[in-house]
Amino acid sequence: xxxxxxxxxxxxxxxxxxxxxxxxxxxxxxxxxxxxxxxxxxxxxxxxxxxxxxxxxxxxxxxxxxxxxxxxxxxxxxxxxxxxxxxxxxxxxxxxxxxxxxxxxxxxxxxxxxxxxxxxxxxxxxxxxxxxxxxxxxxxxxxxxxxxxxxxxxxxxxxxxxxxxxxx
Length: 168
Fold this sequence. Notes:
Blueprint: E1 4-7, H1 11-28, H2 35-46, H3 48-58, E2 61-67, E3 70-80, E4 85-93, H4 102-116, E5 121-127, H5 131-139, E6 143-153, E7 156-166
């Protein structure tokens, strides 16, 4: 089933994405992060205020992903003109929608987006304990280019790999 990418811009759409983020994050991350860190990161990076700022002040693009008329997840990215690459900041699917090939379709969407905007590569960060995600991105042609530990406040850190894929 083909994915449809619905741009997010209105306050109602932003609210919908924030609610989705809260649900998906609390379902997916507690096995790898503490509940306190999940709550903190949802508020800091996935809340209505954070998404609004991303879109309206920081030039991020968000899309809700639909399949068969139902919303299956959301994604967000940002063009880094100075580096001629795309930062994929968010790829999140509801648990019932994983394993259906949507992530592959999403990455094709981003590859086409990069070609359309003449960007040389796309990259993302992946939690070092997200083995399923790491394997999936490696299988889609990404490679690990860096290992980072970033303080995000309140004593929490993001312990990530930066993975990149050249777009030809």
